[in-house]
Design goal:
This protein has 250 residues and is α/β, with parallel strands linked by helices. The chain is 34% helix and 17% strand. The strands form 3 sheets. Strands 2-1-6-5-7 form a 5-stranded parallel sheet. A two-stranded antiparallel sheet has the order 3-4. Strands 8-9 form a two-stranded antiparallel sheet.
């Protein structure tokens, strides 16, 4: 997979050299290139913004500068991703979809955002344009959201995670539940013990306990995820756990 990121703050994306994303880049699973939008300017001040049409506070990023950058970077079949608070909410299903795209171009807006004609123009040209929000809040620009997006996608690429089974059991994975509580050594820490079942060696009981805990945690914290489960995927024990959780208020 190739990811081209366009920003006016290239150094903001330095963390992409670290951890799983950095590993994926070093072994050739993921290619990430960060580009300075100002490289496509021609005036002495390297201007990328102007006052909003119709008046108002702040500045808007100019379509002509973005157009030159994106014309140079978008390849056949590439998807343009624009992080923005007004976009659709980015979630695990979205990360899974983007992980199947060979080439992503991410446009990091700043100020009041990128002129809306940029997204409209590339959609009209047949480019898939996805505007994404990582939550119901406003950031200074698209760079932090891009770090989230690239890490969420990169860890899904084959060969990035040491144990691919982690993707099955983690929060928002294929089971549709939040992950169960996790523990490690020492077995007792500050008066708190690891649950007995986890040191029992009984794999079926451990699997059942983890499933129960995931169901309880999800029911307590994310009732919307429980509502989205397919009833056909719930066995009798699952339904009993959910009934108890509901009667106990989680």
């Amino acid at each position: 997979m190739r990811v081209d990121i366009v920003t006016i703050f290239p150094d903001y994306l330095a963390p992409l050299e670290l951890s799983l994303v950095g590993k994926a880049r070093r072994v050739g699973i993921l290619q990430v290139e960060v580009h300075d939008l100002r490289a496509w300017t021609s005036d002495p001040h390297r201007t990328v913004d102007d006052a909003p049409m119709g008046g108002g506070a702040g500045m808007v990023m100019r379509p002509d500068i973005w157009g030159m950058a994106l014309d140079d970077l978008l390849t056949e079949g590439a998807e343009l991703v624009i992080p923005t608070p007004s976009g659709e909410v980015f979630n695990q299903r979205g990360a899974e979809r983007l992980a199947d795209v060979d080439h992503l171009v991410v446009a990091c807006g700043r100020y009041e955002g990128i002129d809306s004609r940029v997204a409209e123009h590339y959609r009209d040209r047949g480019v898939r344009v996805t505007e994404l929000s990582i939550g119901d809040y406003v950031l200074g620009g698209g760079e932090a959201a891009t770090l989230v997006l690239v890490e969420a996608v990169a860890r899904l690429l084959p060969g990035v995670l040491g144990n691919p089974e982690s993707l099955v059991e983690e929060s928002h994975g294929v089971a549709g539940l939040l992950e169960y509580p996790v523990y490690t050594r020492p077995p007792t820490w500050r008066g708190l013990d690891v649950p007995d079942v986890l040191v029992s060696g009984h794999h079926a009981n451990i699997a059942r306990w983890r499933r129960d805990q995931a169901l309880r945690r999800t029911a307590l914290r994310r009732a919307d995820l429980i509502a989205a489960l397919d009833p056909a995927d719930l066995d009798e024990a699952d339904r009993a756990v959910l009934d108890r959780s509901e009667s106990q208020g989680g």
